Amino acid sequence: MAEQPSRTVLTDIDVPFGSLVLFFVKASLAVIPAAIIVSFILALISWIVGAIFGVGHMGWMMR
Predict the structure, then answer these.
(1) CA distances from 58 to 34, 36, 39, 43 (A)
(2) Which of 4, 42, 59, 62 has a CA positioned 20 to 30 A from the CA of residue 11?
(3) What span, in angstroms and rounded, lies between the C-alpha atoms of 42 and 26?
């Protein structure tokens, strides 16, 4: 006979304040290179879409 999965209820997590601050500092520092990479990827995608559809080309205003 198969065992029934046991249920666990988590009521409290005791994390020291210093460890929590260190975690958030590391996480905020990790966001910087990730944001740079994502912005380059989005710029590349927008450049490709602009090249395909001619969006962003301001040459027509110079006539």
Answers:
(1) 31, 27, 23, 18
(2) 4
(3) 25
Q: What is the pLDDT of residue 56?
A: 60
Using CA atoms, how far residue 17 sits from 20, 28, 30, 44, 61, in Å, is 5, 17, 20, 41, 58
Distance of alpha carbon 25 from alpha carbon 19, whole angstroms: 10
Three-state secondary structure call for residue 25: helix
Give residue 39's pLDDT. Answer: 96
> Over the stretch 27-53, which tens digit does the pLDDT of each residue have?
999 999 999 999 999 999 988 888 887
Per the listing, tokens 């994390």 go with 15
Contact of 57 with 50, CB cutoff 8 Å: yes
